[in-house]
Design brief:
The complex is a heterodimer. Chain A is built from eight helices and six strands; from the N terminus they run E-H-E-E-E-H-E-H-H-E-H-H-H-H. Chain A is α/β, with parallel strands linked by helices. Chain A has a domain of 137 residues: Pyruvate-ferredoxin oxidoreductase, PFOR, domain III (Pyruvate-ferredoxin Oxidoreductase, domain 3, 3-Layer(aba) Sandwich), CATH 3.40.920.10. In chain A, strands 2-3-1-4-5-6 form a six-stranded mixed beta sheet, with helices on both faces. In chain A, helix 2 links the parallel strand 4 and strand 5. The longest helix of chain A has 16 residues. Chain A is globular. In chain B, strand 13, helix 12 and strand 14 form a beta-alpha-beta unit. Chain B has 21 helices and 22 strands. Chain B is globular, with a radius of gyration of 27 Å. Helices cover 39% and strands 17% of the residues of chain B. Classes of the chains: A alpha/beta, B alpha/beta. Chains A and B meet through helix 1, strand 2, helix 2, helix 3 and helix 4 of A and strand 1, strand 8, helix 10, helix 13 and strand 20 of B.
Amino acid sequence: MDIKRIVFVGVGGQGNLLSSRVLGEAALLAGIPVNVSEVHGMAQRGGVVESAVVLGGALSSIVSKGEADVLIGFEPSETLRAMEKCSRETTVITNVTPLIPFTVAVGKGVYPNIKEVLNLIRKKVKRLIALNADALAEKAGSAMAVNIVMLGALAQSNTIPITADQLKEALKENLSQKLWDINLKAFDLGYEAAKK
Amino acid sequence: MHELLSGKPGDKRLLLGNEAIARGAIEGGLAFATAYPGTPSSEVALNFFQIKQETDLYFEYSTNEKVALEVAAGAAVSGLRTMVTMKHVGMNVAADPLMTLAYTGVNGGMVILTADDPSLFSSQNEQDNRYYARLSGLPMLEPTTPQEAKEMTLAAFDLSEKLKVPVLLRTTTRINHSRGVVTLGKIRPRKTQGNFKKDPFSYVTVPAVSRNLHVKLLQVYDQAMALANQSSFNEIIGQGKWGIVTQGVGFCYVQDALDDLKTKESFSVLKLGFSYPFPAETVKKFLSQVDKVLVVEELEPVMEQELRAVAQTMGRTIPIQGKGVDRLSRLFEYDPSQVRSAIARYFGIPVQDRQAVDLSDIPPLPGRPPNLCPGCPHRSTFYAVKKVAGEEAIYPTDIGCYTLGMLPPLSAADFLICMGSSVSTASGFSRALDKHVIAFIGDSTFFHSGITGLVNAVHNNHKFTLIILDNETTAMTGHQPHPGVNMALLGLPNTQISIEAVVRGIGVKHLSVVQPRKVRQTMEAVQKALDFDGVSVIISKEICPLYAKRVAPPAKIRAFMINENRCKNHRDCVNLFACPAFYVEENQVKINENLCIGCAVCSQVCPENAIIPRK
């Protein structure tokens, strides 16, 4: 089985760990060997959070520089920061809505121009899927569902051996029933957006 | 039912390493567990805390790791299966009882988890706790995956009962915080009633007794060595002439590397899971079948040195190397390509790495360091203190969320070495320098190891101000209770200990309790404390908003906004107070209403009174 390495990056509070966990659970349902690495503790206080899912039978759970098959960024500047994980062969899926770091608000750094960020990424990797996950999450009924919109986009990207249905099944297992409607809608909106 | 109690033997679950360890302990008939939380160990204890609510498992969050180990020691000597969990630096705190508990031994199986943190994701150092096995003489097991973490925890109980000493289970962050597929096993019944047979000549460690016990410990070492040599956790994989010795997560990187390099048949891999006593017979067998050895181990060259020692006893002079090969270093955690590259370089195998994209044209990205949350009461305290005491005062700090106060613009942290050090180092600073000294410590850390420092400060008549940041929980590690917590908020019998009463009991003559969200009142309290000649204490009390959201949600959050007509762009709110709910758009400060929790502190900071509640 081909090894597939998927890296998720985002900002503390964006639900990064739920996405990687749902992908991991979906792999378990699909009978695909899987390892997931997560970040807990100090790094979660508004800092950068990275997790990774390795599918297909490798024993490692972390991904070295240049070795991600898919990079999923929940925030565009964080996608760019994590580009060291990418090679020419990588598919990048990114949210385009910025979460301006506080350092910018206090004048310690400049937030890059989103359009330039996307152009830079696009020319370096195999494929870039960019979507406004924040808008889609709001449309689905909760600003908190950005992480699930991104999972929907991943399902559509045809980069992993796991189906949208398997991901939805795993999603339901990990969420209380009252959250199913919003999150399944967020998933579908992400899936549709990635087609464009 | 708790997730880790359900499921049939044979079921497969995607478990975090720490969940796998907790499940392994439950399968092993764990009856009694203690812990002080600390990343990356915390989720093991969290699961025990939850499981305790619905079973007869005894679990407690102890005040610190030394206490946790001692409490568990009493139960283990009485025959119960016990577990104590801590992060690597917690083992330093527990080292005192550990060294002599190794002498007395235990009757019920005792497993001590030490969770190391290479790369310092959430720690003040990256010490290698494999040395604690060598220091104490106790056996050590080191899993490579969550599945093995579960199996080893279970096996560690049996091993401990066989040898009648505690067994150390050593993990690293990448084991604790990786998820993998774990096959569940049968849950053994737990024995919760102990039996202690008095035998002071075995258990009361006066010199005459301990002389005998040390002899006994060395006999245990020999027995453990024999078991390590036979253990299925120690495995020679392959028959090639090129040898690799590895343990922990390094084993995973080595296996993946050999798959990538497509030269598996050239290698013999020695995987050491039962890693101390260093299994000399297994190692000799391995050394006699290879002509060159690479050691893949994060942090210190522990196995590398032991391998050389074993090779010397058998007169084998083959190259044995680890540290210094390619990028293998004593610093930080390893990653798969680093290990693959070292193997390729050392054995001369061609390797084709995937080329990472060129990032030389990427614009400099703004940093995103972790930050105190919007509405965090620590920020308000730091703001008020800095207003009064300024940049000249010395600010020893301690371990918790409030360590983030070191970042500008608050910049309220000057020295930190370990849990509790704020209080005691403040004593030293105040004697050595002619400056105001203001130390910060959290509520949980105060109980952990701040109290003894405060007793010392009062007794020795030091002069500084201690600010106890009481946010009513252990916030940094995930809101665990501690002795000062109102347990009723968690629906449990309340056993809360008043910090104020403790401080008064110690004999502190100047004590004030402030609400940090009242800025002027807090500043006045700081000024008075600084004016006092002796040890002064301020308890700054306000519940952690993240914790409050869960246990005592405020009725209504009323976010604040900037009245743009009044705002004159002084930017004190951003430049001095720096709540992350602020942002600047078109040269106008604004407040993100989704982030603002309405604490109203910024409205007291603004010189123009331009920050007002939303309608």
